[in-house]
């Protein structure tokens, strides 16, 4: 039976499908509906997808897996307004998922289509809103930023900033904030005049829009031209006005960040100075009234209560008269009561000052505006973060010498020294950094810190767990060491011992600063002895292996200073320092003048090593007791001690010649006595004592006899113990070289006979003849190979059962022996003389002698260098450039 038709209703055409209502709970079915030719079905399917994907992230991924992106992109570019709106809404929300964004990046038409929808004439506010949302999500990847910029996406985004819809504004400014991370986009925002609407957004009633506007400004200020453009638009004043409103305190940190970027330009800082903005900023941060407000407040007080009532009545934005709340607000902003800024704002302001002060011109201008006062006030804040940032800013400011004096004059040192005792490592690091810069080339600041009892905490900071604290503390102590009195006071507090631990640090900065501090304090014998006795030389020598140039340079300088005395230089050589320096000197990349100076200092302090390695001793190198010549060593060879050569058995190698003038101390041999002898002696003594007691039994009591016997036994035990200790001491004592009585006699003879001579030339000639006489006399030319010196020398070695031969026992000697003896005696007579080693046992001495002027009958200056002949014609002086001198040096 067919459907009844009403009287006035026309029957539907036969080729039209009746309306069908479909309910679906499967996302796949709705995705299929996107391909329907009916616009109403497409619209409802897009709306359902929007609601579905807005629920959770998993739904977005599910729609992506169902291949919903292609139909949504197609519908988003369709002609039907409703379908386009719902498709844009769905796609905009889906772009929050990273996999969706990855899929859209592979489609060349996706981003251009979204940018097309940003045009106000293309779609309504909803389309603009979700298109901007999609663009903001896509702009999080750098590759998408490039595509958005190339397709002209900056201009429509800037236009949408002036939209009446706050959601459109929010998404647009968020997209621009993301795009501002690209340097090309920053300039485009300025070209399309985007700064006025962004500054206008600072007045928005929505906090999120204000936050995003400030974020965009902060990123846009990375461009120099943008900073100049904002300065021309009076943007600094607007930012300061924003900062002065306590109701917007949640965003004050970001305002300070923008101002910090602006202050990098000297022009911006000068503009703030001229407009009074800098002082206003300082007043806001330190919770003090600005100068003009303070003057106004004083004027209001003088004007009486009537004027005060008039100033308390203001109108709110709606045109109504404000009551008590408005009066309180105005009083808080411009009166005597100042609402304190948040700690985060103070912290960010201190960072801004530090960032601005990196430029020398900016530091000078900040100093003129007394920015140090603000930072000193922030040092007393209760927040550790504020204290740390203020200290760090002071450290940067004090790279200017004028700022160093200002901080001291404005009582900035007491709070800094007080903060050294804090447990907060970040604060301590910033404080020590500030003190390091404050004491750089400023002795008054160093003295003030010591007067404030800051020396002890600084030395204690050398053992801090934070490596930066240790490095900064070492730097402060190095600066203090420039003053002798302060250096002595620090040394009395064991600063050298405190520096040993940082030398072993793994941090190169700590190593560098610690080594430099050691070089500053190791300039006296007591400090060097303390460093040596506490095993501080070993880590110092190990730093010479460092691959860091600064560490290696400072360690070499510390070795140069510490190696000024022979014990320290010898210990450094024993630790391998000499070999390390020689290896570095052979390197083309690691060698430096500091390495050369350290090597020279070690060799000057250890003349035995210098002569063995370099084959040359200058006039300033005076041979003293303990000098020995082991022969020429190759570069990089380890230099052995005299004890090592003494312990060697007799061999056929070259002997080691030793020089000493110490008097021999007679030692009587200690006879070892067995304990049994002492026991028998004690029995004899006790027996004699018993006989004596029998005879005197009538006069002495039994208690007295026992007491005397006990006393005698104790004396015998004490004597036995002393003799055993003496024997042990004699056994443990290191080997000593044989005594050289002949050399002592040589010294006595030259002192009596040669020293009284009037002229230096006469002394040289007489000394040369004396040496030649003691070493076998003159040798005729051509007869040197027949001069038998080896056998007598071998006999001396055999008699002494050692390879170490005292130079005085050499009866037959040639060039190398005579030159060494001449140098040793000449140094005792204060005759300037060098010692140079040649090849094949050749050696010679060079002296400076003033030639006599025959006409004037007086010495002719400057003196000329001569080589002393000790072989053929002893006492003859050979000019260094003569053929005779050249022949004397060669075979």
UniProtKB/TrEMBL annotation:
Keywords on record: Repeat
Region spans: Disordered: 289-338, 668-719
Coiled-coil segments on the chain, per record: none
Domain EDR1/CTR1/ARMC3-like peptidase-like residues, every copy: 740-877
Ranges of the ARM repeats in the UniProt entry: 109-153, 152-194, 411-442
Pfam families linked: Arm (PF00514), EDR1_CTR1_ARMC3_pept (PF14381)
Biased composition regions of type Basic and acidic residues, renumbered to the chain: 293-303, 313-323, 668-682, 693-715
UniProt key word Repeat: yes
Protein name per UniProt: EDR1/CTR1/ARMC3-like peptidase-like domain-containing protein
């Amino acid at each position: 039976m067919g459907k009844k038709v009403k009287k006035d209703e026309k029957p539907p055409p036969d080729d039209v499908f009746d309306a069908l209502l479909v309910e679906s709970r499967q996302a796949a079915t709705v995705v299929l509906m996107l391909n329907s030719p009916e616009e109403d079905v497409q619209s409802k399917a897009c709306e359902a997808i929007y609601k579905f994907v807005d629920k959770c992230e998993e739904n977005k991924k599910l729609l992506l897996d169902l291949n919903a992106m292609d139909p949504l992109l197609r519908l988003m570019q369709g002609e039907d307004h409703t379908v386009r709106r719902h498709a844009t809404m769905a796609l905009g929300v889906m772009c929050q998922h990273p996999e969706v964004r990855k899929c859209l990046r592979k489609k060349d038409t996706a981003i251009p289509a979204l940018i097309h929808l940003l045009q106000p004439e293309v779609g309504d506010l909803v389309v603009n809103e979700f298109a901007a949302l999609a663009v903001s999500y896509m702009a999080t990847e750098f590759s998408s930023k490039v595509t958005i910029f190339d397709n002209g996406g900056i201009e429509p985004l800037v236009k949408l900033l002036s939209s009446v819809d706050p959601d459109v504004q929010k998404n647009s400014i968020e997209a621009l904030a993301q795009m501002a991370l690209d340097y090309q986009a920053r300039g485009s925002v300025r070209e399309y005049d985007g700064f006025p609407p962004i500054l206008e957004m600072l007045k928005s009633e929505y906090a999120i829009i204000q936050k995003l506007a400030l974020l965009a400004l902060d990123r846009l200020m990375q461009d120099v031209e943008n900073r100049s453009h904002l300065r021309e638009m009076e943007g600094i004043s607007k930012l300061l006005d924003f900062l002065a409103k306590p109701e917007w305190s949640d965003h004050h940190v970001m305002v300070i960040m923008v101002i910090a970027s602006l202050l990098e330009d000297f022009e911006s800082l000068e503009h703030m100075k001229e407009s009074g903005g800098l002082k206003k900023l300082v007043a806001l941060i330190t919770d003090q009234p600005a100068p003009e407000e303070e003057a106004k407040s004083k004027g209001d007080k003088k004007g009486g209560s009537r004027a005060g009532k008039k100033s308390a009545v203001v109108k709110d934005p709606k045109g109504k008269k404000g009551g008590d709340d408005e009066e309180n607000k105005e009083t808080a902003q411009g009166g005597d009561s100042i609402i304190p800024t948040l700690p985060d704002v103070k912290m960010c302001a201190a960072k801004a000052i530090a960032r601005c002060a990196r430029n020398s011109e900016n530091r000078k201008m900040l100093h003129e505006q007394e920015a140090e006062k603000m930072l000193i006030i922030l040092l007393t804040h209760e927040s550790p973060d504020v204290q740390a940032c203020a200290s760090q800013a002071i450290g940067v400011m004090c790279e200017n010498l004028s700022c160093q004096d200002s901080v001291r004059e404005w009582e900035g040192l007491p709070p800094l020294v007080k903060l050294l005792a804090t447990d907060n490592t970040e604060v301590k690091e910033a404080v020590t950094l500030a003190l390091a810069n404050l004491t750089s080339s400023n002795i008054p600041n160093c003295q003030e810190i010591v007067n404030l009892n800051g020396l002890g905490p600084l030395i204690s900071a050398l053992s801090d767990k934070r490596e930066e604290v240790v490095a900064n503390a070492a730097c402060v102590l190095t600066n203090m060491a420039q003053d002798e009195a302060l250096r002595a006071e620090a040394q009395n507090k064991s600063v050298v011992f405190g520096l040993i631990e940082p030398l072993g640090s793994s941090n190169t900065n700590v190593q560098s600063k610690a080594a430099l501090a050691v070089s500053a304090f190791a300039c006296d014998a007591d400090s060097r002895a303390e460093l040596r006795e506490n095993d501080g030389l070993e880590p110092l020598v190990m730093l010479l292996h460092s691959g860091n140039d600064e560490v290696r340079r400072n360690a070499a300088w510390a070795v140069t200073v510490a190696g000024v005395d022979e014990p320290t230089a010898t210990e450094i050589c024993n630790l391998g320092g000499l070999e390390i320096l020689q290896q570095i000197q052979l390197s083309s990349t690691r060698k430096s003048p500091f390495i050369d100076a350290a090597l020279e200092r070690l060799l000057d302090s250890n003349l035995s090593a210098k002569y063995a390695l370099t084959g040359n001793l200058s006039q300033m190198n005076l041979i003293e007791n303990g000098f020995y010549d082991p022969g020429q060593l190759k570069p990089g060879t380890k230099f052995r001690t005299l004890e090592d050569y003494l312990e060697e058995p007799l061999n056929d190698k070259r002997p080691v010649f030793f020089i000493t003038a110490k008097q021999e101390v007679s030692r009587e041999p200690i006879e070892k006595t067995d304990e049994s002898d002492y026991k028998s002696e004690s029995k004899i003594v006790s027996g004699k004592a018993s006989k004596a007691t029998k005879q005197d039994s009538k006069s002495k009591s039994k208690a007295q006899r026992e007491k005397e016997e006990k006393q005698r036994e104790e004396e015998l035990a004490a004597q036995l113990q002393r003799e055993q200790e003496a024997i042990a001491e004699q056994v443990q004592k290191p080997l000593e070289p044989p005594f050289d009585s002949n050399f002592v006699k040589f010294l006595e003879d030259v002192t009596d006979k040669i020293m009284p001579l009037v002229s230096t030339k006469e002394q040289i000639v007489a000394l040369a003849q004396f040496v030649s006489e003691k070493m076998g006399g003159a040798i005729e030319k051509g007869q040197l190979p027949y001069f038998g010196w080896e056998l007598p020398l071998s006999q001396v070695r055999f008699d002494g059962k050692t390879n170490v031969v005292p130079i005085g026992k050499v009866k037959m000697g040639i060039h190398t022996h005579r030159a060494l003896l001449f140098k040793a005696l000449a140094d005792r007579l204060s005759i300037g003389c060098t010692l140079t080693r040649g090849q094949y046992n050749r050696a010679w001495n060079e002296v400076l002698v003033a030639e006599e002027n025959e006409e004037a009958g007086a010495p002719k200056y400057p003196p000329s260098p001569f080589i002393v002949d000790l072989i053929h014609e002893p006492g003859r002086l050979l000019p260094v450039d003569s053929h005779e001198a050249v022949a004397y040096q060669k075979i």
